[in-house]
Amino acid sequence: MKGDNSQQASPEEMQQRMHDYMGWMKKMTESGKLKAGQPLEPSGTLLKDKETILSDGPFLEPKEIIGGYVILLADDINEATALAKDCPLLAHCEIMVRPLINVPG
């Protein structure tokens, strides 16, 4: 999930968003679709190459903040997209749906 308008929301709005999101996560868990999901720390390091290391603000690219990830079990990209469309945070941020590559190991 990626967004940039969280700073514009009041504390009450943020609390409601989190409540709605947690309800969606509970629904995904109860349906057996949730495999994993975590928020990400707001700070980090961006490696451009072996010599170029960037640490910027608390966010590396404030216009495109990646707040976390969710891994859902779906039969295909269409089902995953349908599940993501039901996420209440979609009203406030972008959600990128991508399949995982199965790497033998």
Automatic annotation (TrEMBL):
Q: Which residues form the YCII-related domain?
A: 8-100
Query: SUPFAM superfamilies annotated for this entry?
Result: Dimeric alpha+beta barrel
Alphabetized Gene3D superfamilies for the sequence: Dimeric alpha+beta barrel
Q: Which InterPro entries match?
A: Dimeric_a/b-barrel, YCII
What species was this sequence derived from?
Answer: Splendidivirga corallicola
- Superkingdom is Bacteria
Name of the protein this chain belongs to: YciI family protein
Which family is it part of?
Answer: Belongs to the YciI family.
Q: Where are the transmembrane segments?
A: none
